[in-house]
Design brief:
The protein folds into 2 domains: 141 residues, HAD superfamily/HAD-like (Rossmann fold); 75 residues. It has 226 residues and is an alpha/beta fold. It has 9 helices and 10 strands.
Length: 226
């Protein structure tokens, strides 16, 4: 990728994570680490497992098991810890801002890059992003984006490429091939964005997909050099 004219962003795993300040004490009784960085690592390790399994938006069983293993839960307690994680990992828990992502999004805005958000969600994304200080549609205290597309509101979810049409309506005149879409799921984001004619880029901060045939970045900040 040499250049681009716009950047669209997923939310979970790209801008926010399931809140590790909640999940750390939740899983600690089962042997899980309370280290926040350990939980950050666990999300991407679990997403890699979920992507490898080809699981869709409604199947998080592989993710949950991989997450609890990654934070240190022993084999004997994986099943019960994974069930607890599944029960507690509700949409509103996806709220912990990724500091380097927040900083990079602001720098992209300051560099004049048009931005949008496209996410599989439960209707809460726009309010959450503004509340935690990441972005809002139009002017405001956070980074302005042209639109926030929430699958709950538009009635279609990734990897269905139709969800991206709701963002495209705000980017008339920009060729699809020059719009980067950053996500953390091969199944949902890379495949969906490819089908929509966008330029998919996987956020892969721990090099979990080193042999992948698609483009990857370690952080959103990597886009600034391009």
């Amino acid at each position: 990728m040499h250049d681009f004219d716009a950047v669209w962003l997923d939310v979970g795993g790209v801008l926010v994570l399931p809140d590790p300040t909640v999940l750390a004490p939740l899983l600690a009784p089962y042997g899980g680490t309370i280290d926040i960085d350990g939980h950050r690592r666990a999300h991407y390790a679990a997403m890699a497992v979920k992507s490898h399994a080809g699981d869709g938006e409604n199947d998080w069983s592989a993710y949950d098991a991989a997450y609890v293993r990654s934070v240190g839960v022993g084999s004997a307690m994986v099943d019960v810890a994974a069930r607890l994680l599944n029960a507690c990992r509700v949409p509103d828990l996806w709220r912990w801002p990724i500091p380097e992502s927040v900083a990079a999004v602001r720098k992209l805005h300051c560099a004049g890059v048009p931005l949008a958000v496209v996410s599989n969600a439960a209707g809460q994304v726009a309010e959450m992003l503004q509340r935690v200080g990441i972005c809002q549609v139009g002017d405001g205290p956070c980074v302005p984006v042209r639109c926030v597309v929430d699958s709950h509101h538009v009635g279609v979810a990734k990897p269905d490429p139709a969800i991206f049409e709701f963002a495209a309506a705000h980017f008339a005149g920009i060729d699809r091939s020059r719009i980067v879409y950053v996500g953390d799921s091969v199944t949902m984001d890379v495949h969906g964005a490819t089908a929509a004619g966008l330029r998919p880029v996987l956020l892969d901060p721990f090099d979990d997909h080193r042999d992948a045939p698609f483009e990857r970045i370690a952080s959103i900040g990597d886009l600034l050099a391009r």
